[in-house]
Design a protein that fits this description.
The complex is a heterodimer.
Chain A: E1 2-6, E2 9-13, H1 21-28, E3 47-50, E4 53-56, E5 69-71, H2 73-76, H3 83-90, H4 100-113, H5 119-126, H6 136-151
Parallel strand pairs in A: 1-5
Antiparallel strand pairs in A: 1-2, 3-4, 3-5
Chain B: H1 2-20, E1 37-41, E2 44-50, E3 53-56, E4 61-65, H2 74-86, E5 93-97, H3 119-146, E6 154-156, E7 159-161, E8 167-169, H4 170-178, H5 206-210, E9 226-231, E10 239-244, H6 246-249, E11 254-260, E12 263-268, H7 271-278, E13 282-286, H8 295-305, E14 311-316, H9 319-324, E15 328-336, E16 348-354, E17 357-362, H10 367-378, E18 385-389, H11 406-415, E19 419-422, H12 425-430, E20 438-446, E21 452-461, H13 464-468, E22 494-501, H14 515-533, H15 538-545, H16 550-563, E23 573-581, E24 584-595, E25 598-609, H17 616-636, E26 641-642, E27 645-646, E28 664-669, H18 683-699
Parallel strand pairs in B: 4-5, 9-19, 17-18, 21-22, 25-28
Antiparallel strand pairs in B: 1-2, 2-3, 3-4, 6-7, 7-8, 9-12, 10-13, 11-12, 14-22, 15-20, 16-17, 16-19, 20-21, 23-24, 24-25, 26-27
Classes of the chains: A alpha+beta, B alpha+beta.
């Protein structure tokens, strides 16, 4: 049995230790908001937070997680009230939407450490997340808007 | 008008292609979708005035959306069309994806298909009529109850109001409405009276796409479900010779190793276990006919075939004589590579094969073909198969294919449990139906006054349509090979476009904008070659030849003005392209800079006239999306074949644009009262010629094959 802390809750899972966190979240815990895109940390669809840092969960063996706090898109807010989610809705960012959980997790991790991100900050934090629908321009605007919302603007 | 004629002939062609396909189209009537029927469901009773709408006695309104949502916004825009005439706000309507059914056949294509940028064009009249029919029945039922003239009643957000201000909800008259005969002739609102259509609406699917609750095919979970991974032949078109699954079967959680029509499926209690055990299956493959296929052979095959004339798809005047007598002739050869779709959601299907029937949960663009495919794989009649369409994590034409369905069905049948089959990214990249490669020869001829008197385009490529519907293009040729070519808009007296079909032994598929992206690159790059040969600039040269094409001229002038075409900021260079596709007129300007031998696309300006709009912001979003899609193909897109195997496997070897590579995109949508045009695809096609024309301005080098990674540009 592996103990995990997912979205503020202690959970126990019975999985092979080499199972990537992604598949534990999706198949064992039913948290399907985190997506499988490439299995090689190339696309960012599986991005979650480990102790607040954005990681690619397809490359994190569940045995390495330990007591670190895992946050998934389902745990970002209970009601889409996180500033990034609000901004995403305001700008109607998603198209097919498949990458957007990962985009939102990367963006929220960025804003947690960088309240006023520059274009270069956004490039650096977001270039690991592929959007095949090409919503990059809206993501960039929405990140700026989320920063404003966070500052109470 | 030329475009209209082309549209009609395409429609007729497709109707005939659907007819040719025979068994493809399966009639499954919706329960109670006959006029004015009632269906029961628990305590709530439902009126189903037509195949698209269901009004519950609980005042619920369900819209069966007959197109798949793959990002292009139909979940919202088609709901808007039906809501406009029904007389309710968008929030009142629960939008569900329609099952397979003849009522949902796309009139423009001839099958239940989401593709060809047709969703709004197909639904524009049909869905407004569906809404209007339902509203008329409901209002009549209410008016009958009140004993007043229905013409004096009105509808306010799902509430019918009498001339005496009495009110009845839709749900309260649903049962009575179900007993009425639907009216034959329905008058639709004139566009000037639209309250929803043409007015920006928030996408209905955004909330579920920012909180992780949106269910894609890969997210389907059924009770008792198992998971499968699939080993497919590494050589395209290969097959399994022998296999040994003993080692895999001994691994933890593995339930079965199932030989399927697409390869060896390993079924386990988790996908990760299935995926690991898949690699433990020992398989001897038969390479099949493509075992020695490679890029050079494909290119040679096309070049060799191009020596023969193809089928004439447009012929004005006498091109041969005009070229013979010309003062100046310009010729060029262009070549384009195979491309993968690379939807971000890998292909997948969840199948539940039981004694009493089959359910498949699948992200598909083709419900009826999916149903027929599952029925065949399960060995049951199509009437036994239910298709549940999920949201699609990208389509781009990839999900017009159904190659991921049979193995899921066969595996479920073998283990007698629901099975979710998920391909890896590598499976997906190496087993696509690729955009066909092309080898094209183009000729332009001028008279001694410098007037362009002939334009000839000789295309050599594969026919995707023939792959889908064998024999269907024999009569009239394949319209999906000559897009952005046969509609050559420039005022030239002698024009000829011919298509030489040459297959290459591997599956080719419809890829966002289909042959537009191939042919627009050739036609619009070559327009600049012709302009250069006359020492004219791209804009002046085109404008003169588009004097009789007002819709082209408007977008061209608008994009030139907004981009300050020809006057880029210091260190930047401009390139231009124009095209009509899917009934939408478009012009793009790319603004680029060069650094370290590489091209950076800094900005893209796009002006379009897509006729009447449904959800304006979705149009802008689709152009933004298409530009990035076209950019990825232009910059890096290339599938290479060696020994019949695809060399690219994941997003490291098949690069697509990322945030730091995404240009600023400015979109200008013209007000237009023309019929709606498609917007999901066309902008894809203009990026490559616009950028390559800019590269010529910057470097003096004319690039006639793609992607740009082939070149070191000074």
């Amino acid at each position: 049995m592996t103990q995990l802390n997912v979205n503020g809750k202690a959970v126990e899972v019975d999985v092979d230790p080499d199972t990537p966190l992604l598949w534990v979240l999706r198949d064992t815990l039913g948290l399907t908001g985190t997506k499988f895109g490439c299995g090689m940390a190339l696309c960012g669809a599986c991005t979650v937070h480990l102790n607040g840092q954005a990681v690619r969960s397809c490359q994190v063996p569940v045995s390495s997680v330990g007591a670190q706090a895992v946050t998934t898109i389902e745990g970002l807010s209970a009601d889409r009230s996180h500033p990034v989610q609000q901004a995403w809705i305001e700008h109607d960012v998603p198209q097919c939407g498949y990458c957007q959980s990962g985009q939102i997790m990367s963006a929220s991790a960025l804003l947690a450490t960088t309240p006023k991100p520059t274009d270069a900050d956004i490039d650096a934090a977001m270039s690991g997340n592929i959007c095949r629908c090409g919503t990059y321009q809206r993501i960039r605007s929405a990140i700026r808007r989320a920063a404003e919302i966070k500052r109470g603007a | 008008m030329a475009a209209d004629t082309a549209d009609i002939s395409r429609r007729d062609f497709l109707k005939s292609s659907a007819a040719v396909s025979g068994g493809l189209l399966i009639a499954i009537a919706l329960p109670g979708c006959k006029p004015a029927a009632m269906a029961t469901g628990g305590e709530t009773r439902y009126a189903t005035p037509n195949a698209w709408l269901r009004i519950g006695t609980d005042d619920s309104i369900t819209f069966y959306c007959d197109k798949s949502e793959m990002g292009q916004g139909v979940y919202t825009s088609l709901t808007m069309l039906v809501a406009e005439e029904l007389g309710v706000g968008l929030a009142r309507i629960d939008t569900q994806f329609a099952p397979p059914g003849d009522a949902y056949i796309n009139t423009l294509i001839g099958g239940q298909i989401t593709g060809g940028s047709t969703s709004v064009r197909d639904g524009w009249d049909k869905l407004r009529k569906a809404g209007a029919t339902a509203r008329t029945l409901l209002v009549t039922a209410a008016a009958n109850q009140w004993g007043v003239d229905a013409r004096n009643c009105r509808v306010e957000d799902g509430v019918i109001v009498s001339p005496h201000l009495d009110k009845l909800k839709f749900g309260e008259v649903a049962e009575a409405a179900a007993k009425l005969t639907p009216p034959k002739d329905i008058a639709l609102k004139p566009p000037a009276q639209f309250t929803l259509v043409g007015k920006a609406q928030k996408r209905k699917d955004t909330p579920s796409k920012v909180d992780g609750t949106c269910v894609y095919g890969i997210d389907v979970r059924l009770p008792g479900m198992l998971y499968a991974a699939l080993a497919q032949p590494p050589v395209l078109g290969g097959s399994v010779k022998t296999f040994n699954g003993e080692k895999a079967l001994a691994m933890p959680g593995v339930v079965a190793v199932v030989p399927t029509s697409s390869g060896i499926a390993v079924v386990a209690d988790s996908w990760w276990r299935a995926r690991k055990a898949r690699d433990a299956v020992t398989i001897e493959w038969d390479g099949g006919p493509n075992a020695a296929l490679n890029d050079a052979k494909i290119s040679q095959t096309l070049r060799k075939a191009s020596a023969d004339a193809g089928r004439i798809m447009r012929s004005d005047g006498d091109v041969a004589s005009a070229i013979k007598g010309a003062a100046k002739v310009v010729k060029a050869d262009y070549e384009l590579p195979l491309l993968a779709h690379a939807t971000l959601e890998p292909q997948n299907c969840t199948a539940d094969v039981r004694a009493d029937g089959v359910d498949i949960h699948v992200p598909t663009q083709v419900q009826q073909i999916a149903q027929a495919t599952a029925a065949k794989a399960a060995g049951v009649d199509v009437s036994k198969v239910k298709v549940h369409t999920t949201f699609l994590g990208g389509g781009f034409g990839r999900r017009l294919e159904v190659d991921f369905i049979p193995a899921a069905v066969e595996a479920s049948k073998a283990v007698k449990k629901p099975v979710k089959l998920v391909w890896t990214r590598e499976d997906d990249m190496t087993h696509d139906a690729y955009r066909p490669p092309a080898f094209d020869q183009v000729t332009g001829a001028f008279d001694d006054q410098g007037k362009l008197i002939a334009w000839k385009l000789h295309l050599t490529s594969c026919s995707i349509t023939e792959r889908f519907f064998p024999g269907s293009t024999e009569k009239n040729g394949d319209p999906f090979t000559v897009e952005a070519a046969a509609n050559y808009p420039y005022d030239v007296p002698n024009v000829q476009v011919d298509f030489k079909r040459q297959e290459i032994g591997i599956n080719v598929g419809f890829w966002r904008s289909v042959s537009h992206a191939l042919n627009c690159f050739v036609a619009e790059s070559f327009m600049d070659e012709l302009a250069v040969s006359q020492k004219k600039d791209s804009l002046t040269f085109r404008r003169a030849l588009l004097a009789k094409q007002p819709r082209y001229l408007r977008v061209l002038d608008l994009v030139a003005k907004e981009s300050r075409f020809g006057y880029p900021p210091k260190g930047r260079f401009h390139g231009l392209a124009v095209m009509e596709g899917y009934g939408t007129y478009m012009a793009q300007v790319a603004e680029i800079s060069m650094a370290d031998g590489k091209t950076q696309v800094n900005r893209v300006f796009c002006a379009l006239d897509c006729g009447m709009q449904v959800n304006p912001d979705t149009i802008v979003a689709q152009v933004e999306s298409s530009v990035i899609f076209g950019l990825s193909a232009l910059m890096w897109g290339e599938i290479n074949i060696q020994g019949g195997r695809v060399q690219q496997s994941n997003f490291d070897s098949y690069r697509v644009a990322r945030m730091n590579e995404a240009p600023r995109i400015d979109v200008y949508v013209l007000d237009s009262q023309e019929a709606p045009g498609g917007v999901g695809e066309p902008a894809t096609a203009l990026v490559a010629p616009a950028v390559c024309n800019a590269i010529y301005t910057a470097t003096g080098r004319r690039l006639r094959s793609l992607p740009l990674t082939r070149y070191k540009l000074a």
